[in-house]
């Protein structure tokens, strides 16, 4: 069986978000998986990325966070809380992120988790950089081979987050997290599990959601991930722009999804196996 890390960000243990986290723990363990939970509010996680993240400083006079992050990761000068979360990520075969959608993004405490844990040399600044290879990112990287999924209760109605919805499609809203924070260091990103009208749910609605959620968890290691294009897979030119013959005529983020008829992506001599969307 597999190892699953749940990174949970909600201040109320009796919330629907926390209830989904509890369902995930119960279901995954019942299926034989090992589970760890980073409950950020319960841990009183420090969300601020600042000078206190380093036990020793490369430059004690001026804080350049990127440079200090790189030095601390390479030299063992990170604080213990950061290193512990990195160890959990390396242990995990899949990572679930459980949080409510607040102002079109994640709660500040979870953003602070990414800011601090995704250090230089761990989640970015990885791999060879030259004119043809822009580092190991977007499909490659330290976290390659792991799956990730967002569990996102949302106060708004589903039509508001549809393709013509006033809030934008849920894929567009979650793009910075799914593509920018999870696919960037190499994770295979599963379609999210959004729960709409979360603050107006009755018992029948909760039963339906719980059943659907358990089904998704049962297929966590079976279902296809979102077919994002790998940066170094041959679909982007030397300036990291999608080649003009690709993208199916789209000028939105959907151009960055592999489509039927696209050439296979090759990364470091290996064909990237990914589901293709119908054109």
UniProtKB/TrEMBL annotation:
InterPro entries: Flavodoxin_fold, Flavoprotein-like_sf, NAD(P)H_dehydrogenase_qn. It holds the Pfam family Flavodoxin_2. The keyword Oxidoreductase applies. Belongs to the NAD(P)H dehydrogenase (quinone) family. Residues 3-203 form the Flavodoxin-like fold domain. SUPFAM superfamilies: Flavoproteins. One of its GO terms (molecular function) is NAD(P)H dehydrogenase (quinone) activity. Keywords: Oxidoreductase. Transmembrane segments: none annotated. This is NAD(P)H dehydrogenase (Quinone). Gene3D superfamilies: 3.40.50.360. Its EC number is 1.6.5.2. It comes from Thalassospira tepidiphila.
